[in-house]
Fold this protein.
Amino acid sequence: MSEIRNEKPLPFRGGVGVGDVPTCTVGAGGQAPPPPPTPPLKGRGALGVQNLAIARRLQPLTAELHPGEVTAICGPNGAGKSSLLAALAGLLVPDAGTVTLGDAPLAGMPPRERARAIGYLPQAPEVAWDMTVEVLVRLGRLPWQGAPLHRAHASPAEDAAAVEAALATMDLSAFRQRAVSHLSGGEAARAQVARVLAGAPRWLLADEPLANLDLAHAAALVGTLRAEARAGRGVVLVLHDLAMAMNHADRVLVLRQGALIADGPPQQALSADTVAQVWGVKARWLGEPGSMALALEG
Amino acid sequence: MTRPVAILLALLAVAFPASLLAGKVWIDPLHPVVANAGVILMQLRLPRACLALVVGAGLGSAGAAMQGYLRNPLADPGLFGIAPSAALGAVLSLWLGVAAGWALPLFALIGAGSAMALLGLIAGRQGGVALFTLAGMMIASLAGALMSLAISLAPSPFAMSEIVTWLMGALADRGWREVWIAAPLTLGGVLCLFAAGRGLDALSLGDMAARSLGLDPRRLQALIIAGVGLTVGASVAVAGIIGFVGLMVPHFVRPFTDRRPSSLLLPSALAGALLLLLADVLCRVLPLTGGELRLGIALSLLGAPFFLHLLLRMREGRA
């Protein structure tokens, strides 16, 4: 019997916005419980899909995601997770159905206005030129740097403050002058998240942000993203690690072959039956809520 | 103003007046005893130096924009087929024997415009980079084949020699007319490239991330086609094919910038102007029997070894 297990997140030192999450170590028992979730603001500012369909990738799907929550999208390879996330970000034109932000359809929104509302981190983030961490993070401010007279144009001071806050949140202030090519995998992943945070989006969508991260860095990143959700942001993550989704998401969408199989709180959406049905694996959950592990059987 | 821009402006401020004094006839500003010094300066060297600045600035910024757009340090403005198409137009005017006065630059600009229109048609709705680049390379290949055809079927040995000489690229014997043709077009092109700066910055994070930052890929593509088309088309129209400036210059200045493509545009324009000004002076003062060294040849002689050096560095993972 093998076991997949992870525990409560390790917050980054000195992070802004995570001060309410107690410092802890991975694997240590008896942790303080997470702060109570703020009630989701139903309807207002929600990111919704109505009968969204993409040929050969997603079957008609309806869901409404709420700010203040961490929503995980799970499913086997080729289930349509990344397509759904890209459609939610307004980056994929659906063949049918609509994506809405609040009451407004995303398709009719000017690209820069959409970019100010929804931050997106692709599955394999790239940086073409060997810039420093600070320059990379500053690129996250691009949606705010339009025509100088535009109402949404940010002043240089506002840009600088947002970049500082993002660097601090991801504990990257000491790395600001380091070239991206000289970062470790975990540091590079944090720099990419900081780039998205610098844009101060209301929604943060990330496609497998924990891939290639070791357990400590993955737990720390999840802790930061949870803190962002508690601060009122909507966080949507594509996750392969079911234990991460079970322990840290407020809501889980399970996809299989482009169809929505389950949608609800993690205990319900990731039940042993669903895991067997979707992944074809016999498994059961061990442990207490918040620190559960998936034990494979047979 | 950033430090590289200030340094390049200072170098240009020194190099520009100094370049006017150099040539077959050296002019000593303190002892102006050279006959016809005024005519040499005003009618020959000043327009030539101005043209070097205009063409160099256009090619330098086009190179920086192309490398940013294709996210590849080996990209060159010639990749989209605009330079060969402009050259094909010019070759056609020489072939037809109507190259006098404004006709040759006009033919070249029509060639560049045709390539831009074709690229715009091929670019499609999505604004994808790979298909677009392949299309540009095919246009370049077609224009090159047609040029070779025109040379092989030249109506006379004189026309053939004229075509071959023109293709080598030069600023010799150019006057104010060429400056008036190239300057406004290059200025328009450089402004388009500057307008593309933020889009190029976003694109350095990859296509999806760039669009998530509000990038409109079709607008960016249109700005790049217009910017590269105008700068490169204008430069080929007045000076022939001058290779390697667009490739080399961004590499010279990149280490002195913060590596964002937008921060590379202005320094590349200034460094391109400086490089062409100095290379043209070198062509003028090198003692060669049978005339001046052609500028296109001089830059290729400098550029090819540089390119090899770059490839070696990339192989070692240092570029």
Notes: The CA atoms of residues 40 and 52 of chain B lie 16 Å apart. The mean pLDDT of chain B is 88. The two ends of chain B are 26 Å apart (CA to CA).
